[in-house]
Each structure stands twice: as structure tokens, then as C-alpha cells.
Design a protein that fits this description.
alpha/beta; Rossmann fold; Four Helix Bundle (Hemerythrin (Met), subunit A); four-stranded parallel beta sheet; four-stranded antiparallel beta sheet; 13 strands; about 50% helix; binds zinc ion
């Protein structure tokens, strides 16, 4: 399998540190709001990647952290008039619910930053002792110039970074390039005791510490969205490699492209943030959302469109219907070796696509070829052919995380069909039957408002 490594800028053959084992760390959510569909794109991708690695027989250990203390959380807790802990609980629950709706497998460990303060203090102290960090009036900073390889992930030289670096008000850095490992707390902020006074950790240190604690000093894959490359992941490398003296901290740095809405970055100020809950509440099927998010290559920037999501929904329905037909088919014919060969060839191409930097759009198009073939050949299949077909469906389901629930057409789909039938009848001037349908719907409490709801979902 080849995978694109941000560190080298190239697609590389994937070779884990320990044969047969994969240790993967993904930067998880900061729990101060509901997850939007951009978060979903990132986490669904890593979920499918983990599923695929497991499918290939690797023993995978998957860690995804939860950032439950930071500036945004302090601000949001004040706005909502609740404590930071209450805020964290509320949005951890919300995140867990979204991940479950989207069929994301639970990571092996989901460590929370605030449960690892002593470990962070220990690493920060060691960095001070080794001369990589310094205390400044209750804060602790990492001295970037002490780590000559700084910039190797984001491909920036220290000289280039100097131009953009600045000291924010309240910071007590010696050099604008330095970043905080520990921040002294202000009045009313959450704080923990430390050798440098009460305070809280900077954001970057938690991922170095929790990754090392649960996966070891060097890991195979570290992931997140592209906006984490700098400074977050660059800083993680500096802290971790300075602390252990071992490089690389991580072998393959994998980053997902952003999801944009109306060609713009999702942001509160533009009012274009779409949460996972928004879409599901409006009747979209979580498996369709999942498949839609995987229909673009993970590194590409994807522009979200409801038309796209709706067409994925139709595709998914077709796949489900084909699977149902296949399951109930009686394979009474002689097996055709050529046909079995064709199925296996498509399956091979499906895997080739996934092995090529997890190219899901290409894998999906191969799978669609296969679905077409099933529909075409179904009346002529034998026992073994049916088995091979079912196997391919099951592989697809395992890796893409769809077709996991027993499929039943929803009430809204049935209702939608009835409404379509009614308008066809009216076109043919068969008013008597069309009025009878309308009357029946009304009697069942599915009058005008139900129809409007359906239209809202379908449009
Ligand atoms: Zn992180």
C-alpha cells in the first residue's frame, strides 16, 4: 500500500515500524461546539483507513484524543454560563453521538487532555532540563531555534517563519518564534498546580504526550486536517523529538483536505456552518453522508453540495436494492467462469485503487461497475458466482462502513413515491384515483404538512 506522507511530500510504500502492527494517532475534536460536516469528513476518512488496515490484517492501535481545555472552551463556557467541565461533557456526548450515527468505530483509546496533566508536566520539565524550553514568569516556552529541524513538516525555513512571527499581548516569549508549553492561568480560568505555578498546558503538548503514552515514542501514522500541519504538528514533532532524542516521532504524516461550503471555508461569521446533526435532522441518511464524504479523495478539497449528497443517496439506495435482489436470488444456473473472472478483476482494481493512497473515488467507481454487472447478470448466476458477488458486497461494506444496517425503505420514501404517483395520475387526468389517494393520505394524518416535509428533505 502506498500512502502520501506530508513529511516527504511523496507517496511512499507503507511500512510500519513493527511488522504487522499499525499505531495511529489522530488529532480529535476540541469539544466546544457540535461537529460540522468538515470534522465528519476527516474522522470518517480515518475510520475507513483504520477499517482498511484491519481488513489487510494489520493489528491496529488507534488513538484519537479529545481536547477539553483551551481558549475557545473558556470563552464558550462563559457564553453558555456553564463550567468548562459541563461544556466538555455536553459536546463530548454530542461528538460521540455523531460518530456513532456515522458508523465510526470507537478508537482503542480516546484520551482527554485534562486527564493527562501530570504526564504533560513531566515532559515539559524534561524539555526544560534538556535546554529546549525555558520558564518565563509562570509560562513555559519551547525555544524553536534550539531545534534546527523545525519547519521540516510544513516545509518552511526558520528565516521565513521569522517574518510572520509575533508576540501576542500577554505572552512572555524571548523569541517570537517560540510557542507555549504551559500558560500561567488568569483569574477564573481552569488551572492545575505545576513547578512553575498554577496554570494549564498549551495545546500542542497534549498530543505529543498522549501519543507517546498510548502508542510509544515513535508511531506509524499521525493524522488530522491540513490546517494542523502548521503550527500544531510541526510543534508536536519539535517537542517529541527533542524529548526522546529519536526521529522520526511519526513515520507517515497524513492530512485531509478541507470541506468547503459554497466554495468557502465554513465559518460562523459567514453563516455557512453545517453540522452533522443539521443534516441528519433533515432526514438525510447517515450512511449516505458517509459515502458522500468518501466520494472525494481524502487529500482533495471538497465542495459540499446537497445535490451531490442527494445523488449519493440515490446511488446508495441502488446499491442496497441490488444487494437485496442478490440475497434473494436463487442461483440455479451453471457458473460461468468468465463471469467470475470478471468479478475478481473488478475487485482487484478496487483494491489497487485503495492501495494507491486510499483512492476512494476510484475504488467507488470500480464498485459501481460491479453493481451494474450484478444487475445485468443476476438472472444467469450459479452458486459460486453468487458467493463471489456477496463477498464483494461484504468487503465494500466493511471498508466503507455502509450497508451495515438492515435496509428498509423509509416511510418518507414511500410517501414520496405515492405523491409522485398521484401527480402522474393527474397528468393523465385520472382525478378520481388521485383524489382518493389524497383523501387516504389525509386520513392517515399525512396531508399537506407531511408533503412539505418530504419536499424539504428531497430538495
Ligand atoms: Zn493534536
Amino acid at each position: 500500500m502506498r500512502i502520501h506522507n506530508t513529511l516527504t511530500g511523496e507517496k511512499e510504500e507503507f511500512r510500519p515500524i513493527k511488522e504487522g502492527e499499525v499505531r495511529i494517532y489522530v488529532c480529535g475534536p476540541t469539544v466546544y461546539d457540535h461537529s460540522h460536516i468538515g470534522h465528519a469528513k476527516t474522522f470518517v476518512f480515518y475510520d475507513s483507513l483504520v477499517r482498511y488496515l484491519k481488513f489487510k490484517g494489520y493489528d491496529v492501535k488507534y488513538v484519537r484524543n479529545i481536547t477539553d481545555v483551551d481558549d475557545k472552551m473558556i470563552k464558550k463556557a462563559k457564553e453558555e454560563g456553564i463550567t468548562i467541565q459541563e461544556l466538555a461533557e455536553k459536546y463530548i456526548d454530542s461528538f460521540t453521538e455523531d460518530m456513532k450515527s456515522l458508523n465510526c468505530i470507537l478508537p482503542d483509546v480516546q484520551p482527554r487532555a485534562t486527564a493527562h496533566i501530570p504526564e504533560m508536566i513531566e515532559v515539559i520539565q524534561a524539555l526544560i532540563d534538556k535546554g529546549y524550553a525555558y520558564v518565563s514568569n509562570g509560562d513555559v516556552y519551547f525555544s524553536v531555534r534550539k531545534f534546527p529541524e523545525y519547519g521540516k513538516l510544513s516545509k518552511q525555513r526558520i528565516e521565513d517563519l521569522e517574518a510572520g512571527a509575533r508576540v501576542e499581548p500577554g505572552e512572555k516569549k524571548r523569541d517570537p518564534l517560540d510557542f507555549a508549553l504551559w500558560k500561567s492561568s488568569k483569574e477564573g480560568e481552569p488551572s492545575w498546580p505545576s513547578p512553575w505555578g498554577r496554570g494549564r498546558p498549551g495545546w500542542h503538548i497534549e498530543c505529543s504526550v498522549m501519543s507517546m503514552k498510548y502508542l510509544g515514542e515513535q508511531i506509524d501514522i499521525h493524522g488530522g486536517a491540513t490546517d494542523l500541519i502548521f503550527p500544531h504538528h510541526e510543534n508536536e514533532i519539535a517537542q517529541s523529538e527533542a524529548y526522546t532524542g529519536k526521529a522520526p516521532f511519526c513515520r507517515y504524516w497524513v492530512h485531509t483536505g478541507h470541506l468547503r461550503v459554497r466554495e468557502e471555508k465554513m465559518s460562523k461569521s459567514l453563516g455557512n456552518v453545517i453540522t452533522v446533526k443539521d443534516l441528519l435532522k433533515r432526514g438525510y441518511d447517515p450512511e449516505a453522508l458517509r459515502l458522500y464524504l468518501l466520494s472525494a479523495h481524502y487529500r482533495s478539497q471538497m465542495n459540499f453540495s446537497e445535490d451531490g449528497l442527494r445523488s449519493t443517496q440515490e446511488t446508495l439506495n441502488r446499491i442496497r436494492e441490488t444487494l437485496l435482489k442478490l440475497r434473494s436470488a436463487s442461483p440455479s444456473k451453471e457458473d460461468d467462469e468468465e463471469l467470475i473472472g470478471e468479478i475478481l478483476r473488478i475487485k482487484e482494481k478496487f483494491f489497487e485503487a485503495l492501495d494507491d493512497d486510499f483512492n476512494t473515488p476510484r475504488a467507488l467507481s470500480e464498485f459501481h461497475e460491479f453493481v451494474k454487472l450484478v444487475n445485468r447478470e443476476l438472472p444467469r448466476i450459479g452458486e459460486r458466482t453468487k458467493e463471489e458477488m456477496e463477498k464483494f458486497f461484504s468487503v465494500f461494506s466493511k471498508i466503507f462502513g455502509v450497508l451495515e444496517k438492515e435496509y428498509e425503505p423509509s416511510v418518507s420514501d414511500l410517501l414520496d413515491s405515492l405523491i409522485k404517483i398521484r401527480s402522474k395520475l393527474r397528468e393523465k387526468k385520472l382525478y378520481e384515483i388521485s383524489d382518493w389517494i389524497r383523501e387516504r393520505l389525509r386520513q392517515m394524518g399525512m396531508g399537506e404538512s407531511a408533503k412539505r416535509n418530504i419536499r424539504r428533505v428531497k430538495r
